[in-house]
Amino acid sequence: MMYKRSIGADASEERLSRLIAERLEPGADRKRIDERIWDLFGEEWAIVFTDLSGFSRNVEAFGIIHFLQTIYESERLLAPVVDGHDGVLLKMEGDSMLIIFRNPAKALLAVAGMQKTCADYNADRAPEERVLLCAGVGYGKVLRIGDADVFGKEVNSASKLGEDTAKAGEVLVTQAVVDAVAGGPFAFEPLADAPSVAGPSYRYRY
């Protein structure tokens, strides 16, 4: 029988916790510890946060079963699009998805595909049954902690754009995304009221 050694899914979190605890010690060399953390967990990813417009209002109006139905339908519709563009769905929290892509161009193609999938689905649905997607996209070096989570400036920016700023059908992106795909077949327009936490931001004209 082949010998198998199972490593817990939280091994990365435990390693990070030890380093953070070490960083908190009096007299700790924080610069050296920070370098170790980035060496261990630092990776470049495109980050996508999605949100469903009007979700909270619909839950209030139609109840928790409607909530569960909408979550189920959004995952059923959108997960294949994510997979088809080599994305990794890290987690779902309520009506939000956190997705990462190695390739920022594929991230943009994926969110455009997700919006089209939703538009096709919504065409013959009652207003309360529609999946109205908002999305924010960032790109850059982040701390990826196993398959549990990612942290970094572009993560925060993508979250702010996707969950708090974008309207139904919109895809908002950071300056880093625009720079990363410069020269490609993508069109953007500046966002006049971009949130300060995200810096210069753009509407992706998919």
Question: Can you give a write-up of this model?
Answer:
- The protein has 206 residues and is an alpha+beta fold.
- It contains seven helices and eight strands; from the N terminus they run H-H-E-H-H-E-E-H-E-E-H-E-H-E-E.
- It has helices at residues 11-23, 30-41, 55-62, 64-84, 104-122, 153-165, 175-180; strands at residues 42-52, 87-93, 96-101, 133-145, 149-151, 171-174, 188-190, 201-204.
- Strands 1, 2, 3, 4, 5, 6, 7 and 8 form an eight-stranded mixed sheet that branches.
- A hairpin with a 3-residue loop joins strand 4 and strand 5 (149-151).
- The longest helix has 21 residues, at 64-84.
- Residues 1-9 have low confidence and may be disordered.
Structural class designation: alpha+beta
- Termini separation (Å)? 53 Å
Question: Percent of residues in helical segments?
Answer: 40-55%
Strand fraction band?
15-25%
Biggest sheet layout:
8 strands, mixed
E-strand count? 8
Spans of at least 5 consecutive residues with low confidence: 1-9
Radius of gyration: 19 Å
Q: How large is the count of helical segments? A: 7
SSE map:
Elements (H helix, E strand, L loop, with lengths): L10 H13 L6 H12 E11 L2 H8 L1 H21 L2 E7 L2 E6 L2 H19 L10 E13 L3 E3 L1 H13 L5 E4 H6 L7 E3 L10 E4 L2
Parallel strand pairs: 4-6
Antiparallel strand pairs: 1-3, 1-4, 2-3, 4-5, 6-8, 7-8
Helix pairs in contact: 1-2, 3-4, 4-5
Supply database-style keywords.
single chain, 206 residues, alpha+beta, eight-stranded mixed β-sheet
